Amino acid sequence: MVAARAAGARPRAAARVRPRSLAAGVAGGLPGIVLRVDRAEAPLFSGAAGVSSLERQTPLRATDRFRIYSIAKTFTATVVLQLVDEGVLSLEDTVRRWLDDPEVGRIPDADSITLRQLLTHTSGIYDYQDEADSPFYVDAFFGPDADWGRVWTPPELLAYADGARHAPYFAPGQGVAYANTNYVLLGLIVEAATGRPFRDELRDRVLTPLALDRTSLEEGAAVAPDVVPGYQRQAGQLADVSAVNLTWAWVAGGIVSTAPDLARFARAVFDGELLSPASHAAMLTFAPGTWGRLEFGMGVYRVSSPHGELIGMDGGGAGGTSTMAWLPGTDVTVVALANVAGTEGLDRLRDEAFAWALA
Asked: Looking at per-residue confidence, does 342 or 192 come out higher?
């Protein structure tokens, strides 16, 4: 089923996006997809295809809530940079400046790694979610003692990046390596600097000012019941993994949201609404070197596309895949969400949506 709204768009263009991109994605095996395209404050297209629940065959709605995973890093970076604007934090502060508690584990180079390096993935810190050799996934999801409802604490996550267990990828500032560990540390630094839970800083600084009423950091054993079920391919079948809570990703990926909320957030981020000009420029300054095709700023990446260099963030994990992208010079943003992990289809959908918006 496809439910779509095309506001201010040419009918032929809207029709071209809807069946070819959304419906084709569902036909290709995705349970459900939501697409949102905006230019400045005007929504050009808002649509959904497929189902939120395979078991109940519930039609997906364009306003449904999804696991957005690493787009959470853009929220976290925004909170950190607001504290920089207020003089509470400095980008040159070290991890040890704020976290000198043995509970956070023996993080290598904590005396020299800076907030700037955490934000841009240039710290060299080992990713506790490293699929190549971290035991985290076995312990959390696949091992005989794995409990999908376990509430993970940040120190428990950081223990997997302990220098006694795994060496850093490189010395601080000497490369680029994407690591969720960086953002777990940033979340703890925000809490240490403010004396408040990160969720409260996020709510007061970003969610409430932007009226993002359907966006939240999920910290319980169960994800909120109005979040769409999530699926993952296992042995060629789609398995329901909705029971996996989001504390295993915390501020690096534990946020749920909707396409309308993310479209509003994207405009605020890319327009510089939430930060000083200096911090906005720092967020959109990309560190030398790449991780795959991506260049990293602070909570965002830059990547080449058929339409030019996009700035945005993606997310992916158990039960969800997301993308949020902006094309500088056009004021066009695209948000796409799916309730399945590990799909490459959203990149294609994103590029087709930009082609449609620019036609």
From this structure: 192
Q: How far apart are CA 292 and CA 19, in angstroms?
A: 31
212 phi and psi angles, rounded to 5 deg: -85, 75
User: Residues 74-101: pLDDT tens digits?
Assistant: 999 999 999 999 999 999 999 999 998 7
Count: domains in the chain: 1
Task: List the one residue out of 308, 270, 350 whose CA is nearest residue 40.
Answer: 270
| Radius of gyration of the chain, Cα coordinates, nearest whole angstrom | 20
Instruction: Report the pLDDT averaged over residues 1-22.
Output: 46
CATH number, domain of 301, equals 3.40.710.10
Banded pLDDT at 19 (limits 50, 70, 90): very low
pLDDT digits 0-9 by tens, 198-211: 999 999 999 999 99
State the residue range of the domain holding 303.
2-358
Length of the chain: 359
